[in-house]
Amino acid sequence: MKISREIKTAVLVLSGVLLMVFLINYLSGESLFDSNDAYYTEFDYNALTMASPVTVKGNNVGKIQEIIYDFKTGKTRVSFKVDDQLKFSKQTKVRLYKTGLMGGNALAIVVSNEGEAAKAGDFLVSEVEEDLISSLSNNFSGVSENLDATLSSADSLLVHLNTMVLDESDNGIKSAIAELNATMKSFKTLSYSVNSMVKENDEKLSAVLNNFDVITKDLAIITGDLKDVKISKTVANLDNTLLTVNNLMASIENGEGSMGKLLKDEGLYQNLEGAALQMKQLLEDMKLNPKRYVHFSVFGKKAKSYDADGNEIEDKD
Fold first, then answer.
1. 66 and 82 in contact (C-beta within 8 Å)?
2. Of 278, 276, 245, 251, which is closest to residue 263 (Cα–Cα)?
3. What's the pLDDT at 136?
4. Domain extent listing, the chain
5. Exposed (0-12), middle (13-18) or buried (19+): which is 89, by Cβ within 10 Å?
6. Strand pairing of 93-98 and 75-83?
7. Cα distance between residue 83 and residue 126, in whole Å
8. Using one digit for the tens of pLDDT, what is the confidence trace for 216-258?
9. Which CATH number fits domain 34-129: 2.40.30, 1.10.760, 2.40.10, 3.10.150?
């Protein structure tokens, strides 16, 4: 069958149109052989173009379909498509972010699988990620304010230091430096005096050190002697002695032996107390009535007699 030239020309033109459409969609990130689902979100301002990519973790998974300004709400409504293999829930967020330092924006799908699964036509919550330049600008504004305050404080500090340096009173730095200089001179003089004293008493210091060396050696000898002493045997003898003393004290406490009976016999104590009392009364009576006990007569006169109460007894002869 012979095909006419007109048919060949028509087929060639249609093929070219289809190829052009395919290339345009391929360059824009959309494949004619993939089915896509459309979702919606909105932002307070528009920073996107129709060529802005839709990504998941940096991977291109779709494209923006439509950007419309809503006159009622004053927000920008964005419609976008993603590959039907991407599954996420309605809690997924759409993030607007910059793709580089020189500009360019894109949409990032922050996937969440919690809750009900999203489907075509659902509205997703949006958020805007602060870019590096804006963050640096905000931080620099705060740093500049802090820097101004720091420079102001430094200026005040320098003014105060200058005032203190120029102040020649007792509160000024000059006075403090002068006093420090005088103190250093005094310390220098004292060091010279100490050096002179050391030189003059060099021999005495040497003798003191030699004596200290001898004392140290003697202490070492004494320590060696103490080391050789049988301390355990001495402690054992002391223990035996203390045991003997304890037995002796126990026997005395029990009233055994002469010492125990002397300390524990109450009758003996009472007899001794009574004898002491009688001795005291006898001495007092001898002091008051010495004639009762001492009789002296030149002519042989008979001595007088007294009763138990000290009264004189008349002689009936």
1. no
2. 251
3. 47
4. 1-32, 34-129
5. middle
6. unpaired
7. 19
8. 888 888 777 666 666 777 788 888 898 888 888 888 777 777 7
9. 2.40.30
What is the sign of the dihedral through the CA atoms of 9, 10, 11 and 13? positive
Structure tokens at 224: 């060696």
Number of CB atoms found within 10 A of residue 267's CB: 7
Q: How many residues does the chain have?
A: 317
- The token pair at 309 is 């109460």
- Residues 6 or more apart in contact with residue 133 via CB below 8 angstroms: 101
The mean-pLDDT minimum among 13-22, 25-34, 102-111, 303-312 falls in: 25-34
Split at pLDDT 50, 70, 90, the class of 309 is low
CA-wise closest residue to 108 among 64, 141, 157, 159:
64
Find the distance separating the first CA and the last CA of the chain, reported in whole Å: 211
Residues 95/62, Cβ–Cβ less than 8 Å: no
Q: Which ranges constitute the DSSP H helices of 201-302?
A: 202-228, 231-253, 257-264, 266-288
